[in-house]
C-alpha cells in the first residue's frame, strides 16, 4: 500500500512539474518579442572604448543595417573624435531668450527623437521676473511670448565638468570626453537609471519604449555617440549635437534660436564668442552649490 | 574676476579623463580662421516692401532710387504718418525720432550719423550702434542676434544676422512669437496659465 | 557520533542525495501546504507574464516617467534589503550573547535573509531596461565602475550576503541531514561576518540615495541610521509572526523566550525608528525653503498634488499604533493585538521605506516640477509575483530546515528503519 501511495504521489508530482513547466513557458512567452530583435553580436558587443577600429566599423555597419530594416531609412553613422585643444562650452543670454521653444523643436528634428513622446533635450521654463526660484516656473505655457513680467530659461544637460551621472553609472556606460561632452554608449547602457536619479538638472531621458519615427523624418546624418536612433531601455541625453560640433558646426538649438540668445564655442580660443561672453558678462551656473561645474552658463545683459 | 575664473577652470580640465574612458583626440586644423563671418544682407535694406509678392512668393522690394531718381525730394516730413500714402506698409514706433535723425535729407538711399557723416544703406549697422552701442558690441561678439554655420571657422564659415533681419528700423521692437508646443511628458498635466499646478 | 569511519559515501554523493530529498520535501506536505504553494505559484506566474510583457513593450507599461524614474520596484528593493538585514537581529543574541533559546530558531532569521535578498535582487532585475546586458556588470568581463558607483558596492555586498546566508543556513541544514553536530569552526566565523555584513548591506543601500546632492529629500546623513532602525523593526516583526506560524503548524516547538527576546529588541527599535523620523522631519520643516519641498509634498501635498499624503499618514499611524501596543504591557500580552501590531508595523515600514522614501526623492523633480507617480497594474502584478516567489522560497526553506533539525529529514542510511509491522500498516 505504501508502495502504491509513493508511486501515485511521484506520478502526481511528475504531472505537476510538467504542468508547471508548461505554465511557466506560457507565462514567459511574450518575451519572444524582445528576444527576437536581439542578435548575438549586439548582446556580446564590447564597450565603445574597447572596440578596435575594425570592430567599430562592423558595429556601425550592423547599426546602419538595423536602421534600414526597422525604420526604412538609409543613414550614415559617423564616429567623430574630439579635436585637440578644444574645450566646449555653451552660454545662454536670459535677457534675449523669448521662450519660443524653437531650440527644443530643432533638437527634436536633429536628434531623431521618438515622435510619440516628442522628446527634446532643452526644457524651456517661463520664470517670474525677480526670482530664480524654479518652483515658480512653468514649462507648459502656450501663450504668446515673451510675456510681460517673465523671462525664459532653457535647461538641458549641463555637460558638467564634475558630473554626478558619470560617478553613478555602474557600468561606465557614460563618461566625459576630452572636449567636455558627457556621452553615453547606447549599446552598453543597461538601463538602471541611476544616472537619471543622480542628475540635478533633469538632463537625462530614458527610452521607455522603442522610438518611433517615419523614414522621411529620420535625420540620416548621425553619430555613434549622439543622434543615432536609440534602442528601447537605454538612457540618452543632450550631446551638444556631437556629430555637428566635432565637425566645427553649431548645435541645432543654437542655429534655431531667432534672437541669438545662445553662444557656443571653444573656451580655449581667445578669439571665440564664448570666451568673450565668459569674460565680459556676469555669468552664473545653476545649482553651483552642488559642485557639478557645469559647462552651460547663463547671463543677463543688464 | 569673472574673467579669469572660467578660464582657469577650463584649463585645469585639459586632460581630464574620467576613469580612462575618454576617446583619443584628433589634431586640430592648422592656423587661424580660414573662413569668414558673413553678415547677412536682408532684402529690406535698400528698398521698401511693396506688399506684393513675385511669382515665387517672395516679397517684392522697391529700391529707393526707383522713385527718388525720378522726382525731386521734398523736405523730410515731420511725421512718418505723412508718408503712408507713398511708403505704404510702414509703421513707425521708434521713440521720438524724426526722420532726419537717420535719413540723409539729400538722398533717399543714404543714411546719416549724428555728426552728419553720410552712411550707405549697407552700413546701417553703425547707425543702429550709435544709440544701441551695447547691443552692437554684443552682436559683434556673438552674443546677440543669432548665427548659423560653424563655430570653428578653421573648418567653415558662419553667417550672422543683420540688425534689420530681426528689427524693422521703423518699428524695431522684437515681435511676439507663438511658442512651439510645450513638452509632451507622461503624466505632466498641461495647464493654460502659470505655475506647476495640476 | 560520526559516521565517516563506517564508510559513508563522500559529500559529492550525500549532498546530491540531500538536494534530491530536499526537492522531495519541498513538494510534500499537507493540503494546506499544497493550497498555499499553488496559490503562490499562480501569483508568481501572473507576475512573470507581466514582466515578460514589460520586457517586450518597454517600461512604458509602468507608471514611471523621466521625472519619477524609479518607483515601486526600487521601493520594494529598498524595503527588502532592510528585511534581510533585520534577520540578523536574531543572530546577535544567539551568537554574541549565547542566548540558548534563540540559538534554536536562529535559522529562521538566516532563511528570511536568503528569501529577502533573492526578492530584492529580483526587484532590481525587473527594473533594468536592458536585462540582456547584465554581464556588463561582471568585474573583468564588463566594466564595473567600482569604487565610484554606489550601485556596484550594492551589487557586491548583496551578492556576498546572499552567499553567506546560503552557506550558513545550508551548512546547518545539511549537517543535521547527515545527523551530525555542525562544527562551530565551520560556521561561527561566517555568522560573525554576516552580522557586520548585514549592517553593510543596508548602509550601502542608504548610501545609494544619500550621496545624491541634487535630491534634497535623500541628501541626509540620517539615511543610513534610519534604514537600520526600520530594518530592525520589520525583520523581527516578520520573524515573530513566522515563528508563531511554525509553532501553530507544529513544525517545531518554538521557545517563548526566543519570541520574547525579539519583542524586547523591537520595543527599543520601534521607538528609535519613530524618533529618527521625527528628527528628519524637524530638520526639513524648521529650515523650510527649498529643503522642505519634498517633505511638504509627502505629508501635506503641494501645488494641488497630494498622491502620497494618504500613504505616509497611514504609515505613521500604523507605526505609532504598533509602538503603543508593543510598549503598553497589558496590550502586548494580548496575542491577537500583538500580532496585529506586528503586521501593522511591517506594513507601515513597507510604506515608509518604500513609496515614502523613493517617490519623494523625485517629487518635486530637480527642476521643481511636480509630476505624480502611480504604479500601474503591470507593476503591481510583478511586485505581487516576486513577493509570492519569495514566500515560496521562505516556506520551502523553513520546512526543509525544521524537518532536518527534527530528524524527519535524514540521510537514508541513518534514518531509523521502520519496523516490519508498521510497514504493513502504512
Structural class of chain A: alpha+beta
Report how far apart the termini of chain B are: 43 Å
Q: What share of the residues of chain A lie within helices?
A: 25-40%
Distance between the termini of chain A: 98 Å
Q: Write down the overall geometry of chain B.
A: globular
- CATH C-level name of the largest domain in chain A: Alpha Beta
Reading the helices and strands of chain A in chain order gives: HHHHEEHEEHEEHEEEHHEHEE
Q: What is the averaged pLDDT score of chain A?
A: 94
The CATH architecture term of the largest domain in chain A is: 2-Layer Sandwich
pLDDT < 50 runs, ≥5 residues of chain B: 1-5, 10-19, 190-198
How is the CATH topology of the largest domain in chain A named? Answer: Alpha-Beta Plaits
* Oligomeric organization of the protein chains: heterotrimer
Tally the helices of chain A: 10
The topology string of helices and strands of chain B comes to HEEEHEEHHEEH
What does this structure look like?
The complex is a heterotrimer of chains A (302), B (198) and C (426). Chain A has 302 residues and is of the alpha+beta class. Chain A has two domains: 1-36; 88-299, 2-Layer Sandwich (Alpha-Beta Plaits), CATH 3.30.70. Chain A is 30% helix and 16% strand. Chain A contains ten helices and twelve strands. Chain A has helices spanning 2-28, 32-36, 40-44, 53-71, 102-110, 164-168, 194-198, 242-245, 252-256, 273-280; strands at 76-78, 88-93, 123-128, 150-155, 174-176, 182-184, 204-206, 221-223, 235-237, 262-266, 283-284, 296-299. Chain A is elongated, with a radius of gyration of 24 Å. The model of chain A has no long low-confidence stretch (mean pLDDT 94). By secondary structure, chain B is an alpha+beta fold. Chain B has a domain at 37-166. Helices cover 17% and strands 14% of the residues of chain B. Chain B has a three-stranded mixed beta sheet with strand order 1-7-6, with no helix packed on it. Chain C has 426 residues and is mainly α. Chain C is built from 16 helices and no strands. Chain C starts with 10 loop residues before the first helix and ends with a helix. The chains are: A alpha+beta (302), B alpha+beta (198), C mainly alpha (426). Chains A and B meet through strand 2, helix 5, strand 3, strand 10 and helix 10 of A and helix 1, helix 4 and strand 6 of B.
Amino acid at each position: 500500500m505504501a508502495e502504491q501511495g509513493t508511486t501515485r504521489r511521484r506520478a502526481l508530482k511528475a504531472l505537476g512539474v510538467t504542468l508547471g513547466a508548461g505554465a511557466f513557458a506560457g507565462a514567459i512567452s511574450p518575451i519572444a518579442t524582445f528576444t527576437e530583435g536581439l542578435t548575438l553580436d549586439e548582446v556580446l558587443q564590447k564597450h565603445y572604448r574597447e572596440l578596435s577600429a575594425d570592430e567599430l566599423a562592423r558595429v556601425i555597419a550592423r547599426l546602419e543595417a538595423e536602421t534600414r530594416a526597422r525604420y526604412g531609412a538609409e543613414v550614415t553613422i559617423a564616429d567623430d573624435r574630439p579635436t585637440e585643444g578644444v574645450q566646449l562650452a555653451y552660454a545662454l543670454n536670459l535677457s534675449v531668450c523669448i521662450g519660443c521653444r524653437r531650440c527644443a523643436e530643432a533638437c527634436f528634428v536633429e536628434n531623431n527623437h521618438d515622435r510619440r513622446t516628442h522628446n527634446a533635450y532643452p526644457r524651456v521654463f517661463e520664470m517670474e521676473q525677480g526670482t530664480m526660484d524654479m518652483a515658480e516656473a512653468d514649462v507648459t505655457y502656450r501663450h504668446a511670448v515673451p510675456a510681460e513680467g517673465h523671462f525664459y530659461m532653457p535647461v538641458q544637460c549641463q555637460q558638467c565638468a564634475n558630473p554626478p551621472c558619470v560617478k553613478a553609472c555602474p557600468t561606465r556606460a557614460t563618461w566625459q570626453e576630452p572636449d567636455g561632452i558627457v556621452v553615453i554608449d547606447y549599446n552598453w547602457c543597461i538601463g538602471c537609471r541611476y544616472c537619471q536619479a543622480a542628475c540635478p538638472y533633469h538632463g537625462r531621458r530614458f527610452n521607455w519604449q522603442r522610438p518611433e519615427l517615419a523614414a522621411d523624418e529620420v535625420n540620416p546624418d548621425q553619430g555613434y555617440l549622439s543622434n543615432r536612433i536609440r534602442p528601447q531601455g537605454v538612457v540618452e541625453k543632450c550631446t551638444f549635437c556631437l556629430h555637428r560640433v566635432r565637425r566645427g558646426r553649431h548645435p541645432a538649438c543654437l542655429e534655431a534660436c531667432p534672437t541669438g540668445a545662445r553662444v557656443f564655442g571653444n573656451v580655449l580660443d581667445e578669439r571665440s564668442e564664448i570666451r568673450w561672453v565668459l569674460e565680459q558678462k556676469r555669468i552664473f551656473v545653476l545649482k553651483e552649490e552642488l559642485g557639478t561645474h557645469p559647462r552651460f552658463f547663463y547671463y543677463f545683459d543688464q | 574676476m569673472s574673467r579669469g575664473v572660467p578660464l582657469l577652470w577650463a584649463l585645469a580640465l585639459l586632460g581630464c579623463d574620467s576613469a580612462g574612458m575618454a576617446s583619443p583626440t584628433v589634431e586640430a586644423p592648422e592656423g587661424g580662421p580660414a573662413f569668414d563671418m558673413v553678415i547677412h544682407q536682408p532684402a529690406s535694406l535698400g528698398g521698401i516692401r511693396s506688399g506684393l509678392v513675385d511669382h515665387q512668393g517672395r516679397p517684392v522690394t522697391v529700391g529707393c532710387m526707383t522713385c527718388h531718381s525720378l522726382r525731386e525730394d521734398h523736405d523730410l516730413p515731420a511725421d512718418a504718418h505723412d508718408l503712408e500714402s507713398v511708403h505704404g506698409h510702414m509703421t513707425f514706433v521708434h521713440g521720438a525720432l524724426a526722420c532726419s535723425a537717420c535719413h540723409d535729407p539729400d538722398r533717399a538711399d543714404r543714411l546719416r550719423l549724428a555728426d552728419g557723416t553720410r552712411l550707405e544703406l549697407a552700413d546701417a549697422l553703425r547707425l543702429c550702434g550709435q544709440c544701441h552701442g551695447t547691443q552692437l558690441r554684443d552682436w559683434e561678439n556673438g552674443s546677440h542676434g543669432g548665427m548659423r554655420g560653424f563655430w570653428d571657422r578653421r573648418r567653415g564659415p558662419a553667417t550672422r544676422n543683420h540688425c534689420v533681419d530681426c528689427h524693422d528700423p521703423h518699428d524695431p521692437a522684437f515681435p511676439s512669437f507663438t511658442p512651439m508646443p510645450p513638452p509632451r511628458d507622461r503624466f505632466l498635466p498641461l495647464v493654460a496659465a502659470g505655475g506647476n499646478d495640476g | 557520533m560520526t559516521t565517516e569511519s563506517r564508510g559513508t559515501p563522500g559529500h559529492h554523493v550525500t549532498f546530491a542525495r540531500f538536494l534530491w530529498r530536499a526537492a522531495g520535501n519541498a513538494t510534500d506536505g499537507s493540503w494546506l501546504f499544497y493550497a498555499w504553494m499553488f496559490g503562490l505559484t499562480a501569483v508568481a506566474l501572473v507576475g512573470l507574464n507581466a514582466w515578460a510583457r514589460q520586457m517586450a513593450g518597454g517600461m512604458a507599461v509602468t507608471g514611471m516617467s523621466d521625472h519619477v524614474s524609479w518607483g515601486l520596484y526600487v521601493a520594494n528593493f529598498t524595503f527588502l534589503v532592510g528585511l534581510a538585514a533585520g534577520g540578523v537581529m536574531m543572530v546577535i543574541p544567539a551568537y554574541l550573547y549565547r542566548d540558548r533559546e534563540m540559538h534554536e530558531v536562529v535559522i529562521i532569521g538566516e532563511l528570511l535573509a536568503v528569501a529577502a535578498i533573492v526578492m530584492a535582487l529580483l526587484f532590481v532585475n525587473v527594473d533594468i531596461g536592458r536585462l540582456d546586458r547584465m554581464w556588463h556588470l561582471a568585474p573583468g568581463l564588463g566594466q564595473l565602475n567600482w569604487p565610484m558607483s554606489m550601485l556596484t558596492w550594492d551589487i557586491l555586498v548583496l551578492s556576498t550576503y546572499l552567499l553567506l546566508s546560503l552557506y550558513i543556513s545550508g551548512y546547518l541544514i545539511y549537517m543535521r541531514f547527515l545527523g551530525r553536530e555542525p562544527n562551530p569552526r565551520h560556521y561561527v566565523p561566517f555568522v560573525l561576518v554576516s552580522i557586520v555584513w548585514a549592517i553593510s548591506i543596508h548602509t550601502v543601500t542608504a548610501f545609494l540615495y544619500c550621496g545624491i546632492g541634487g535630491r534634497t529629500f535623500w541628501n541626509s546623513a540620517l539615511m543610513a541610521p534610519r534604514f537600520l532602525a526600520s530594518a530592525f523593526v520589520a525583520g523581527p516583526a516578520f520573524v515573530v509572526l513566522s515563528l508563531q506560524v511554525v509553532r501553530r503548524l507544529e513544525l517545531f516547538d518554538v521557545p517563548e523566550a526566543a519570541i520574547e527576546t525579539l519583542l524586547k529588541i523591537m520595543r527599543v527599535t520601534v521607538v528609535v525608528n519613530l524618533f529618527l523620523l521625527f528628527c528628519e522631519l524637524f530638520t526639513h520643516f524648521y529650515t523650510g525653503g527649498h529643503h522642505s519641498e519634498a517633505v511638504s509634498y509627502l505629508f501635506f501635498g503641494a501645488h494641488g498634488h497630494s498622491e502620497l499624503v494618504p500613504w505616509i499618514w497611514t504609515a505613521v499611524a500604523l507605526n505609532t499604533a504598533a509602538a503603543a501596543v508593543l510598549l503598553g504591557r497589558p496590550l502586548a500580552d494580548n496575542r491577537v493585538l500583538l500580532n496585529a501590531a506586528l503586521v501593522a508595523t511591517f506594513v507601515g515600514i513597507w510604506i515608509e521605506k518604500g513609496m515614502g522614501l523613493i517617490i519623494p526623492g523625485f517629487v518635486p523633480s530637480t527642476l521643481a516640477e511636480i509630476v505624480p507617480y502611480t504604479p500601474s497594474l503591470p507593476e503591481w502584478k510583478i511586485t505581487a509575483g516576486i513577493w509570492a516567489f519569495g514566500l515560496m522560497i521562505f516556506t520551502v526553506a523553513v520546512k526543509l530546515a525544521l524537518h532536518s533539525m527534527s530528524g524527519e529529514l535524514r540521510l537514508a542510511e541513518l534514518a531509523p528503519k521502520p519496523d516490519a509491522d508498521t510497514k504493513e500498516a502504512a
